[in-house]
Design goal:
InterPro entries: Aldolase_TIM (IPR013785), HMP/HMP-P_kinase_dom (IPR004399), PM/HMP-P_kinase-1 (IPR013749), Ribokinase-like (IPR029056), ThiamineP_synth_sf (IPR036206), ThiamineP_synth_TenI (IPR022998), TMP_synthase (IPR034291). This is thiamine phosphate synthase. Pathway: Cofactor biosynthesis; thiamine diphosphate biosynthesis; thiamine phosphate from 4-amino-2-methyl-5-diphosphomethylpyrimidine and 4-methyl-5-(2-phosphoethyl)-thiazole: step 1/1. By secondary structure, the chain is of the alpha/beta class. It folds into 2 domains: 248 residues, 3-Layer(aba) Sandwich (UDP-N-acetylmuramoyl-L-alanine:D-glutamate ligase); 188 residues, Alpha-Beta Barrel (TIM Barrel), CATH 3.20.20.70. It is 36% helix and 20% strand. The protein has 15 helices and 19 strands. The strands form 3 sheets. Strands 3-2-1-4-5-6-7-8-9 form a 9-stranded mixed beta sheet, with helices on both faces. Helix 3 runs parallel beside helix 4 and helix 9 packs parallel to helix 10. The chain is elongated.
């Protein structure tokens, strides 16, 4: 019985020493989407998130040899090209692949880095247009690249971009995709796709994400399309999946605090290893060890703003902050939540909203904590998605097990001792012990804890305690 066929993509492109774009982004995209990637490095770049310092092309003969040995042994279903810095490198790539009869090409005509640095010369551009475009199943220029290829301006409207795609199609590619990520002045940006043989066209509007983590988006999109084609997808299907993957990878990249410029996408957002009973915040394990629960009543009569009190709590060692506002209108609570969210984000401390999923979504909080009478945990998880923190208040081992089954990241047991913010009965240390034994996710002791009485509670729980 033969083994199942593995989708194979040979990537011919430049190496990004900073790891965000080029070959590095191509490999990560293919791996995330289930295709096996090989590489033929066409150039070495010295770059980081701020820009490109130097480019060193690989000799045409060595590029040809990389391609030949990969195709002779492993083979490829799709060839994906990226930065080809010189005319001779383009010629070498085309001649090496032509001998093997590969039928599918994804050509990303990389000319300028995200930082604005120019990557290839005009002779290379001419060779790409003359030799690669006629072979391409799809070319994927962004708006500035499309303008450079056509030597004219293109507005950011879908109609003008489609006109440009039709014009580029005359250079030989089967499909043309022009990406609208550089369109200014609109939150809704279009990508367009045009088929040269049938005249079929598609416009894909998308909400523009407010993110500095955009380094390598073009490489990622093109390699994602290549992975789809290698898996047997039709072109439109492969493009749609690639767009969704890139959008999600940008959205998830807020957890990657890398570099001081345009950061990378989070290609592995679906497959980050998380030890059992742990959750992730901005690329690291969540620390529940000192969980501060607060509201306006905590500072009433002290002549202090709640925001100042939260700052002091963080300075004093609080590892996570929860806003638990009761009996206030939504507008006021949202204003407070936004202020506290800004403080916590600056300090790299997770910010949680109690009960109110709508407030959490509106202020982009890091998570929500709900009680037994609030929205069910599985519904909260469905609304917030997999990357937010969800906590559940429990009093029994059975409730703890249910919370874990429904997708909670942690449980809050309590109240352990009577507290002014909890009018329900306390469960005591015995109840806390039963809750902790009920599940494998972190347990935070909540309610009435202070420096004089928290020692035994800390010994019972595995991850932290809460003060209010």
């Amino acid at each position: 019985m033969s083994s199942p066929k593995i989708p194979r993509v040979l990537i011919i492109a430049g190496s990004d020493s900073g790891g965000g774009a080029g070959i590095q982004a191509d490999i990560k995209a293919c791996q995330a989407l289930g295709a096996y990637s090989m590489t033929a490095i066409a150039a070495l770049t010295a770059q980081n998130t701020r820009g490109v310092a130097a480019v060193e092309p690989v000799s045409p003969s060595f590029l040809r040899k990389q391609i030949e040995v990969c195709l002779e042994d492993i083979g490829a279903d799709v060839i994906k090209t990226g930065m080809l810095a010189s005319a001779s490198v383009v010629e070498a790539a085309v001649s090496a692949v032509a001998r093997k009869g590969i039928v599918k090409w994804v050509v990303d005509p990389v000319m300028v880095a995200t930082s604005g640095d120019k990557l290839i010369n005009s002779e290379a551009i001419d060779k790409i247009k003359k030799l690669l475009f006629p072979l391409a199943d799809i070319i994927t220029p962004n708006l500035p690249e499309a303008m450079a290829l056509l030597n004219r301006t293109i507005s950011g409207t879908a109609e003008d971009m489609l006109d440009a795609a039709r014009e580029l199609a005359q250079l030989g590619p089967k499909w043309v995709m022009i990406k609208g990520g550089h369109v200014e002045g609109s939150r809704i940006i279009p990508d367009v796709l045009y088929c040269s043989s049938s005249g079929e066209s598609h416009v894909f509007p998308a909400w523009k994400l407010d993110s500095e983590n955009t380094h390598g988006t073009g490489c990622t999109l093109a390699s994602s399309i290549a992975a789809g084609l290698a898996q047997g997808m039709r072109m439109v299907e492969a493009v749609k999946r690639a767009k969704m993957f890139v959008w999600d990878a940008i959205r998830a990249s807020s957890s990657l605090l890398i570099g001081g410029g345009h950061g990378p996408l989070h290609h592995s957002y679906k497959s980050v290893y998380i030890p059992q009973g742990q959750s992730i915040y901005r690329g690291r394990l969540v620390d529940y060890s000192l969980y501060a629960v607060t509201d306006d009543s905590c500072v009433a009569g002290q002549g202090m703003e709640l925001s100042h009190a939260v700052s002091q709590a963080i300075e004093g060692g609080a590892t996570i902050i929860q806003l638990r506002q009761k009996d206030v209108d939504s507008r006021k609570m949202l204003e407070t939540a936004k202020k506290l969210m800004a403080i916590c984000r600056a300090a790299n401390v997770p910010f949680i909203v109690n009960d109110r999923v709508d407030i959490a979504l509106a202020c982009d909080a890091d998570g929500v904590h709900v009680g037994q009478d609030d929205m069910p945990c599985d519904e909260v998880r469905r609304l917030l998605g997999p990357h937010k923190i969800v906590g559940v208040s429990v009093k029994t081992g059975e409730e703890a097990i249910k919370a874990q089954e429904d997708g909670a990241d942690y449980i809050g047991s309590g109240a352990v001792y009577p507290t002014s913010t909890k009018d329900s009965s306390a469960i005591g240390l015995e109840g806390l012990s039963k809750v902790c034994k009920g599940c494998d996710i972190p347990c935070v002791a909540i309610g009435g804890l202070n420096a004089s009485n928290c020692g035994e509670a800390i010994r019972l729980v595995r991850y932290g305690s809460s003060s209010s």
